[in-house]
Write a structure and sequence with these properties.
The chain is an alpha/beta fold and about 350 residues long. Helix content is about 40%, strand content about 15%. The protein contains 13 helices and eleven strands. The strands form two sheets. It has a seven-stranded mixed sheet with strand order 1-7-6-5-4-2-3, sandwiched between helices. A four-stranded antiparallel sheet has the order 8-9-11-10, with helices on one face. The longest helix is centred in the C-terminal third of the chain and has 23 residues. It binds 4'-deoxy-4'-aminopyridoxal-5'-phosphate.
């Protein structure tokens, strides 16, 4: 069964773990309580206009219910984290035995998978993307063994901007025997639909999304993992009891009511992405603008170190990715507001004239 298949992937100590029971876990509203003397909070309130004296709901129920409706899932399929970075960390800690298990990544990709693995003393195996940034299934199978617990697939990929094709994702879901974590931080900017609809069929799929990108709420630190309820339970078991603070949770919920505005913003950023790509392509110091399904462009230049420094001197900060695999002389440029992009284009044109 799906449950047995998943159980065998969990670290035995985590499977056996009896989680910390918080005051708010134990009291589930059996009676309509009005006097809470169970959590050693300060019953006099907070030294602020708003009362923050009470611990928040450990499971962020209203937010999960709203997200579940939006995504066509059930709340039991949702984990909320302090950014999706928290979910990356918890997946590693729940599934990877230090010094025994390994994870597989497809560089160049998001740096936190390897960093969190190193923190946990878990080996990172690399199945590089091809020089055109397409995935290489054979490379994945070459490095995978029975101790490969997590396969991190970032789609659209950071820093390259391309999506991994559905055919590849399905091949991995069919053939990789650990969890397949599809990081969809940038999915809202993409033409390709989310793989959330695959959750039904593939119990070993975990989908990461975030409020940090399309929703414009990076400072609040709210991210999601969508997965089989068994996996969600495991993550809930090992998270800090009150991992999301009450204001972040509430503001994320409020943002969901403004989905139309967010959609309009996504449309604008996609149009700006196309405009910026055209403008950059016309510059002599640009060799190639890679196609992007995200809110950034990977741009191969004639000299990334020099252009990076020159832009910095103009007060424009981009990301120098020249030391990443297959990214020689590449800058990763976030699509800005129309005014930001105008400034960037003008600065690059001036560089050129100088
Ligand atoms: N995944 C990818 C691919 C990212 O680029 C980022 C942020 N740069 C994250 C996850 C983490 O996002 P957050 O923790 O803000 O949700």
């Amino acid at each position: 069964s799906a449950r047995n298949e998943l159980e065998r992937l969990v670290r035995p100590n985590i499977l056996a773990l009896a989680p910390y029971r918080s005051a708010r876990d134990e009291f589930q509203g059996l009676a309509p309580a009005s006097v809470f003397l169970d959590a050693n909070e300060n019953s006099l309130g907070s030294p602020l206009d708003e009362d923050f004296s009470r611990y928040p709901d450990p499971y962020q129920r209203p937010l999960k219910e709203a997200l579940a409706r939006r995504k066509g899932l059930s709340p039991e399929q949702i984990f909320m984290g302090n950014g999706s970075d928290e979910a990356i960390d918890l997946l590693l800690r729940a599934f990877c035995e230090p010094r025994l298990d390994n994870i597989v990544i497809l560089p160049p990709t998001y740096g936190m998978y390897a960093v969190q693995a190193a923190v946990q003393d878990v080996e990172v195996r690399r199945a590089p993307l091809r020089p055109d940034f397409s995935p290489d299934p054979e490379a994945v199978f070459r490095v995978t063994d029975e101790r490969s617990k997590l396969l991190f697939l970032c789609s659209p990929n950071n820093p390259t901007g391309n999506c991994l094709p559905d055919s590849f994702l399905i091949a991995m879901l069919e053939q990789f025997s650990g969890l397949v974590v599809v990081d969809e931080a940038y999915i809202d900017f993409s033409e390709q639909p989310s793989v959330l609809s695959f959750l039904e069929k593939y119990p070993r799929l975990v989908v990461l999304q975030t409020f940090s990108k399309a929703w414009g709420l990076a400072a609040l630190r709210v991210g999601m993992a969508y997965a089989n309820p068994f996996i969600i339970n495991i993550l809930n078991k090992i998270k800090y009891p009150y991992n999301l603070n009450v204001s972040s949770t509430r503001l994320a919920l409020q943002a969901l009511d403004r989905a139309d505005e967010v959609q309009a913003g996504i449309g604008l950023l996609r149009a700006e992405r196309a405009r910026l790509a055209r403008a950059l392509s016309a510059l002599p110091q640009v060799r190639e603008v890679f196609p992007s399904e995200a809110n950034f462009l990977l741009v191969r230049t004639t000299d990334a170190d020099r252009i990076y420094a020159a832009l910095c001197a103009e007060g424009i900060v981009v990301r120098n990715r020249t030391r990443e695999l297959h990214c020689e002389n590449c800058l990763r440029i976030t699509v800005g507001s129309p005014a930001d992009n105008d400034r960037l284009i003008a600065a690059l044109q001036n560089l050129n004239d100088a």
